[in-house]
Amino acid sequence: MPPVSVKPPPKNTVLVSHGRPPWYDERGNHTMNAFVVGIAGGSGSGKTHVARQIVRSLGSIPSVVILSQDSFYKKHTEQELVDAFANNYDFDHPSSIDMDSFAECLKDLKECRQASVPIYDFTTHQRLEERKYLYGAAIILTEGIMALQDAKLRALYDLKVFVHCDSDLMLARRIKRDVAERGRSVDGILEQYLRFVKPSYDNYVLPSQAHADLIVPGSNNQVAIELICTHIRRKLDERSNHFRAKMATPHLYTTPSGTAIPESTLDELDLTIMPQTRQIQGIFTILRSKTSSKQDFIFFVDRLSTLLVEHASQFLPYASRSVITPTEAAFDGKTMSAKHICGVSILRSGGALERGFRRVFNNVPMGSLLVQSHGEDGEPLMLHSMLPVCVRQRHLAKDTFVFLLDAQIVTGAAAFMAVRILLDHGVKQENIIFVTFLVAKGGGVPILRRAFPHMKIVTGDVDPALRDDSQGSDGKQVWAMLPGLGQIGDRYYL
Amino acid sequence: MAPVPPPQPATNQSTSQMDPLPQSVFTLPQTAQLEALYTIIRSKETRRGDFLFYSDRIIRLLVEEGLNHLPVVKKVVETPTGATYEGVGFEGRICGVSILRAGEAMEAGLREVCRSVRIGKILIQRDEETALPKLFYSKFPQDIASRYVLLLDPMLGTFIPVGIDAFLMHPSATGGSAMKAVEVLMENGVPEERIIFINLISAPEGLRNFCGKYPQVKVITGWIDEGLNEKAYIIPGLGDFGERRYCE
């Protein structure tokens, strides 16, 4: 299937329609891999159509990735390139696909890690140097003529679909498409069809049908698609995990063995609390007062966040460094030795720490995560992630120190999700430095700490308790910190 | 919550160059991250952009430390959740006074911590006839006598007696100008104990002179260096602060 002149529309897409619910339990472990559907079928059978119909029919669903086999055409040698441009290269043979790389990317995505998917350029018939970053799918649809060919791939599918279509219809669609979209002659299309496409279909594609769980007709397939969607929805429901209420008030819940989770002592929480100087006490008094002006609130938030980030910088690594001063004297000092540093703020209220962060680190990338609670149970949903390159790329992430910024840890649900996202990317737990104004001791921080014992948590102060403030908030479950300082995001931004 | 007392001299950690430190001297916690900041601004390879950014970071920390010496009073507030919180309120009005020219470089950092704070200025030069520090210019807020004063000069050296040319070139690297500035402030009615002198680097000789003469003035210093060389530069120091900040 070597298209020639026109670049086809992108086949790899991430569609976010609803945000992604937790994919881990309260110990921080993965409980939920992405649900993977493999869709195979002959060229022109309507695989892409089936994949898009599934997405449409799922409607209000978490993020979906459609991964196309086309991305995984191998990097070609000089001779292969000559053949490709002369229409002598067999793009329909299984060996033209980099199955190892395909399976590796799919495995990463399935197990909730980031993947960097190769990009294949059809105009130059070559794999590009750059790669596309994908992360955070709850459902992955894989489509391609060889999607069910390789055992490594098949092992990763939760559902294997074969789109079966009449040969005449497939050829007719192919001629129509290649003439219209790719400017090919009918003679050329037919020659290629008889030389490569047809033998490949008979020898490889059609036999792979035997591996399918479900055979979907290539036309008039609405019923089949509805069945697939019902199945996916049920499987997702079975896997979903709700524990925000438990995080907010851990001591009210019992473990499976029947013992209540004891309230943690401050020592067990292993928090790094700002030294309570006169200025810190005075700043907190201004921030906590409900009569403080907006101007004051913003000014003192910026001042406090600067001090917090300065204090948090003690958790970066430092190495010896000797310098010569302008007076030609030697000074044996230190230098910050982390390979990569970045900030990641949990929006919206984590943004209130960004100005302080910038006063301490002026030249480092700043990512963001939008996590919002939703629905009656207030479970967090990951709506948007924009992470720095040093986190996105796995080989850099292991050497990256991340300052994770959020205004306060109340139930800890958003913090929990943000930490999990960083760990998924390969950031080391001990290299995550969580910086926050205020932590509720009786809230979610004990569970956060138990799940992630090596993360650093730097806080301005610790409040004793949470209060259930659900009444009058549209049925949502809402907790407020006591004495607290109110909704920091509202007070800083609105 | 009980208001905490002001920082006690026991928090002093930088005693390697001077032991014991005078009771009125306070240093920043000598952490690895602070040492890394100093390493950057000391290096002669560091360019102006970095010099500005990292010296500002140190200045902010110094001003924060200086403010902890101001008094606070108990204050109860109501939080937006309706709870009461027993905190503290700031007491006492402040103003900054920078010793020209290098002291001006600390004003930006001061204003980031103390919004719209009033800032007075002092210019002190060597008197050509007597070779003693002489006040050439000063401009203070009218009510300075009722305020706490944060006196700003990046380097505290020592008083250099008559006849050394280096003094002409580097008046701010001597303790003489700082002592003259305190003298001027006191003439304007500021009590000695209400002056907080903030600098990035001190020479032990300068600290000894200054604290001997004005034991009530709190000195907040980021780092105490080895001493002075024959040209009256602080060693290892960082060169001429004002020159690096404004001219290089």
TrEMBL record, chain A:
<dbReference type="Pfam" id="PF14681">
    <property type="entry name" value="UPRTase"/>
</dbReference>
<feature type="domain" description="Phosphoribosyltransferase">
    <location>
        <begin position="275"/>
        <end position="493"/>
    </location>
</feature>
<keyword id="KW-0808">Transferase</keyword>
<protein>
    <recommendedName>
        <fullName>uridine/cytidine kinase</fullName>
        <ecNumber>2.7.1.48</ecNumber>
    </recommendedName>
</protein>
<keyword id="KW-0547">Nucleotide-binding</keyword>
<dbReference type="InterPro" id="IPR000836">
    <property type="entry name" value="PRTase_dom"/>
</dbReference>
<comment type="pathway">
    <text>Pyrimidine metabolism; UMP biosynthesis via salvage pathway; UMP from uridine: step 1/1.</text>
</comment>
<feature type="domain" description="Phosphoribulokinase/uridine kinase">
    <location>
        <begin position="36"/>
        <end position="218"/>
    </location>
</feature>
<dbReference type="InterPro" id="IPR000764">
    <property type="entry name" value="Uridine_kinase-like"/>
</dbReference>
<dbReference type="InterPro" id="IPR006083">
    <property type="entry name" value="PRK/URK"/>
</dbReference>
<dbReference type="Pfam" id="PF00485">
    <property type="entry name" value="PRK"/>
</dbReference>
<keyword id="KW-0418">Kinase</keyword>
<dbReference type="InterPro" id="IPR027417">
    <property type="entry name" value="P-loop_NTPase"/>
</dbReference>
<dbReference type="InterPro" id="IPR029057">
    <property type="entry name" value="PRTase-like"/>
</dbReference>
Automatic annotation (TrEMBL), chain B:
<feature type="domain" description="Phosphoribosyltransferase">
    <location>
        <begin position="29"/>
        <end position="158"/>
    </location>
</feature>
<protein>
    <recommendedName>
        <fullName>uracil phosphoribosyltransferase</fullName>
        <ecNumber>2.4.2.9</ecNumber>
    </recommendedName>
</protein>
<feature type="domain" description="Phosphoribosyltransferase">
    <location>
        <begin position="173"/>
        <end position="246"/>
    </location>
</feature>
<dbReference type="Pfam" id="PF14681">
    <property type="entry name" value="UPRTase"/>
</dbReference>
<keyword id="KW-0342">GTP-binding</keyword>
<keyword id="KW-0021">Allosteric enzyme</keyword>
<dbReference type="GO" id="GO:0005525">
    <property type="term" value="F:GTP binding"/>
</dbReference>
<comment type="pathway">
    <text>Pyrimidine metabolism; UMP biosynthesis via salvage pathway; UMP from uracil: step 1/1.</text>
</comment>
<comment type="similarity">
    <text>Belongs to the UPRTase family.</text>
</comment>
<dbReference type="InterPro" id="IPR000836">
    <property type="entry name" value="PRTase_dom"/>
</dbReference>
<feature type="region of interest" description="Disordered">
    <location>
        <begin position="1"/>
        <end position="22"/>
    </location>
</feature>
<keyword id="KW-0547">Nucleotide-binding</keyword>
<keyword id="KW-0328">Glycosyltransferase</keyword>
<feature type="compositionally biased region" description="Polar residues">
    <location>
        <begin position="10"/>
        <end position="22"/>
    </location>
</feature>
<dbReference type="InterPro" id="IPR029057">
    <property type="entry name" value="PRTase-like"/>
</dbReference>
<dbReference type="GO" id="GO:0004845">
    <property type="term" value="F:uracil phosphoribosyltransferase activity"/>
</dbReference>
<keyword id="KW-0808">Transferase</keyword>
<dbReference type="GO" id="GO:0008655">
    <property type="term" value="P:pyrimidine-containing compound salvage"/>
</dbReference>
